[in-house]
Amino acid sequence: MEPGLTTDQYVLINKIAYLFHAPQRGDVIVFHWPVDTSKDFIKRIIGVPGDEISYDSNSVRVNGVPLNEPYVKTESSSTASVYKVKPNEYFVMGDNRSGSDDSRDWGPVPSDYIVGKAVIVYWPLTSWKLIDTYPSVYAQIKVSQ
User: Fold this and answer.
1) 143 found inside a domain
2) Domain of 119: which CATH number?
3) In the prediction, which pLDDT does 2 show?
4) What is the pLDDT at residue 145?
5) Taking the chain (145 residues) in consecutive chunks of 10 residues, what is each chunk's mean pLDDT?
6) Is residue 59 part of a domain?
7) How far is CA 25 from CA 64, 110, 113, 128, in A?
8) Do the strands 89-93 and 81-84 form a parallel or antiparallel pair, or are they unpaired?
9) Could you tell me if residue 42 is inside a domain?
10) Is residue 3 part of a domain?
11) Which domain holds residue 46?
C-alpha cells in the first residue's frame, strides 16, 4: 500500500463499520486473503458489486470512468483486462500497483472475508494520520446497478 501505508506501521481497524453500510470505493480494508484465509491483507476497494473494472499498465476505469489516482506513484505492469464485480464481492488493488498482489492476480474479495475498514495509522506516533479514502477520485462514477 505504499506510499500511503508502509511496512511496520500499525493501523486501527473499524470492525463494525460495515454493519451499517456497505464498503465503498476508495475504502482501505483489511480482509482474509482468498488464496489462504489464514493471512490478512490490506488493500483499497476499487470496485463494488455491479461495477465493471477495466485496467492496463497505465490506467484503471470503473464503469468507463478513468480514475485519477493521486495515491498511485508507479505504473503497473498489468496486461489489459476487464472484470465485472458480482454481488457480495469487491475488487481491490494495492496503491503500489507495480508491486501489489491483488484482485488482478487472484480475483475479488468475498464480502464475508472483510475484517474491517482501516481508519487510522497510530504507530509509530510520528506517522499518525487518518487514512484517506479519496472520495473525489470516485465521485464521478455512477452508482452500479
Assistant:
1) no
2) 2.10.109.10
3) 64
4) 55
5) 78 94 96 96 96 91 94 77 96 89 94 96 89 92 72
6) yes
7) 15, 15, 17, 23
8) unpaired
9) yes
10) no
11) 10-138
The amino acid occupying position 74 is: T
Number of independent structural domains in the chain: 1
| Confidence (pTM) | 0.92
CA pair distance 17, 61, nearest whole angstrom: 26
- What is the chain's length? 145
Query: Which position has the grid cell 476487464?
Result: 82
DSSP the chain: -TTTS-TT-EEEEETTGGGTS---TT-EEEEE-TT-TTSEEEEEEEE-TT-EEEE-SS-EEETTEEP--TT--S---PPPEEEEPPTTEEEEE-SSGGG--SHHHH-PEEGGGEEEEEEEEEESGGG-EEPP--HHHHTTSPPP-
Residue 75: per-residue pLDDT? 73
The x, y and z cell numbers of residue 42, run together, are: 490490506
